[in-house]
Amino acid sequence: MKKLLLSLAVLASFSLQAQQDFTQVVRSYLNTNRATLGLNAQDFSDIIQANQSWSSSMEINNVYMVQRVEGIEIFNSTSAFAIANNGQVKYAAMSFVPAARAKINTTNPSINAASAISRAAQKYGLGQPVNLEALEERPDGTLVFSDGQISMNEIPVKLVFQPMEDGGLRLAWDLSIFLLDGSHYYSARIDAQTGELIHELDWVVSCSFGTEPHSHAGHSSKEELSMLFPASAAAGGSNQYRVFPAPIESPNHGNDQLVQDPSSSNASPFGWHDTNGSAGAEFTITRGNNVWAQEDRNANNGVGFSPDGGADLNFDFPFNFNTAPVNMQEAAITNLFYWNNLIHDVMYEYGFTEANGNFQENNYGNGGAGSDSVNADAQDGGGTNNATFGTPPDGNNPRMTMFLWSPSGPAGEPLTINGGPLAGQYEGIAAQFGAPLPSTPLTGDLALLEDNNAGESTDANDGCDPITNGGSLNGKIVVIRRGSCEFGTKILAAENQGAIAVIMVNNVGGAPIAMGAGAEGGSVTIPSIMVNQSDGEDIIDLLDGGGNINASLEEAGPYAIDGDVDNGIIVHEYGHGISNRLTGGPGNTGCLSNDEQMGEGWSDYFGLIMTMQPGDQGGDIRGIGTYAIGQPTNGGGIRPAPYSTDFAINDFTYANTNSGVSQPHGIGFVWATMLWDLTWALIDEYGFDADLYNGNGGNNIALQLVMDGLKLQNCSPGFVNGRDAILEADELANGGANRCLIWAVFANRGLGESASQGSAFNRSDQTEAFDLPVECTLGFEDRDSGNGVIIYPNPTRDQINLRSLTNIGDAQVTITDLNGRVVLTSEVDLSTIGTINTSALRAGLYLVQIQSENFTQTTKLIVQ
């Protein structure tokens, strides 16, 4: 308890610091540096402090300032400043608009806030808002309206200036609408003169991971994994959870375990089921201060089922992967609850705290807005093969949506025709909505649906138009042909006519598919399957000719894959919340919307580092989403290449962001590749520490630098901005001890000193470069000629890497001390990146001579 009280006291002192106003400090800094920054005095005469927090790792105040003109904010002008307690500005990452006053069109709106909401609703096809009324006006001028029955949340509206492509600033109404189905959380700018939608963001990030064949493989031992996180194996008792615990990425990567008391006393001082800040749990279900995990099979984003652990908080529910996921809801939701809490607790130690906009209902007096724990929806019926995370500004609940994934492997045989000319068993795939197929046969006569073809459809059996033979469907298993309308719509229509189940006939050749719910599938309560075209047409022909068919349906697999146990995906989605809340401060979650932004990269990176296991190596293959898409643990995943420091596996560099990779996932992949290389370079330097909470290894250092870099970078960052923020984070936190190592890693992937990102709003104008700052080359005189070998890290401890700017091929490397004695020789292939182990060398200065048939270079090397 003494440790807990001390921790809370320290955090409370940071909360007090969060009240400091650095506006005058920033204004003085900008005035001194305005020529360098390209600003005039009016550009910072009307600035406001949006957020400020203390960084214990960098020992500076992270301050976020917003630019205004005549009291109206410029959208996404948030600029980040690192300010010491003595008032010295250590670093500034600017997003202010130069000569802003001359670029505005007006300060007087022609349409009011309510009209702007109506225009946005019209644009998004939501109809006219109902009972729309203003509820309050906040001190910053924001008008808060009722939800108008078009949004899950109340609708805030305020005037801003929207930067345009032509360089102008247009007066606009800034508003947000969270669609009732949760699919989009639009942040929109409506032109205050014309009512036109001139800019939009979607706070819901969607991350489709694909559909590949599924298999289970490669389990790690419990003994190997139990040392990594403070979650002891539990033989019985209270506050325990059966999960796939960290760092196990998925059921393919390890076995489920029963862990006890896994909450962090620092990050979650009252446990995971608290909300009032007093001893004792407020909830015995999977709900607490950091997350509320529940099922959402009907996709209504309402209150769904949450497993109950009872007074002892005993969440020991079995996993069963040989049945439909709905039959292991308790276990899956428990896993989702555990991982959301675990990520919260780990990232708290790296600075994602209350004052920095983390996700908590009760902030325990430590700053920030609160009332924004994660709503985590499991087995959501609103889609398949996907996962999403919606991040509104601080004080508003984010939503994580986890879906089911298409089953894989050969189709099972859930359909049996009982007698007649078609007697036998048939392959089929169960729908991913409605009731699961029963474990005992559901038997009934088949009936062919007929509709009136009154719409666009010309198929009388596809159910896309009003049903004409409803009386014949009551109590029957109804046969429908796949058509142009949604599966959920036609199956619900059949159910409303009394159908007890549905057989959907594919209208194209090949295997049947797993049907998605669409807009109405969440209301379906009967089971359904799809059969292939050939088998289905035989059934339709017999029924259409007046024949009678009696059939049975029962569970037969293959079974959908539950994203709630793919922990890499869970961390990835949560990672969007982290990067969006930290970039530009917690009050602005729209800073990662520019073309070159790296949001998907940070999310991949968090997933990778949270699932590192002892014995991993940098050159290993780390695929993203392998479990969900049915690949083994060494599968390539859903990115353009697996993550690996080995260029033979992943040779992507900065130039690849211009073309050849997707936006935003491919662009993010290149960024995460660099961050992964950086992590392993730091592990090579400082070792790996299994304690992810408080360890001192290179992995801990890397994660801290990445988190601090997010806080330091500007709104709408590009790769160069992100690189420079990490370099500055190392300067502030470590005195620049890793400066040349960091430079070498980024330069190795084309983000060297002279690399250019062009405009961060253009994904096709990047220029890569592999050069290093002169202080990091240590005697390398041929850097500018493009002929030579870069040696890094330098200084080093255990190894050096040699990267040739041209294909030198095989080379002899000789290392001598200052007395001329040869201490190490090695043959290195410099057609790729060569590596030499220097761990046997004593600390000191050495000369490295590189010789090949037509090349000689001598470079100084410092061994620490």
From TrEMBL:
Its cofactor is Zn(2+). One of its GO terms (cellular component) is extracellular space. It is found in: Secreted. Residues 1-18 form the signal peptide. Residues 443-539 form the PA domain. The keyword Secreted applies. The keyword Zinc applies. GO terms for molecular function: metalloendopeptidase activity; zinc ion binding. One of its GO terms (biological process) is proteolysis. Pfam families: PA, Peptidase_M36, Por_Secre_tail. Keywords: Hydrolase, Metal-binding, Metalloprotease, Protease, Secreted, Signal, Zinc, Zymogen. Residues 791-863 form the Secretion system C-terminal sorting domain. Belongs to the peptidase M36 family. PANTHER family: EXTRACELLULAR METALLOPROTEINASE MEP. This is Peptidase.
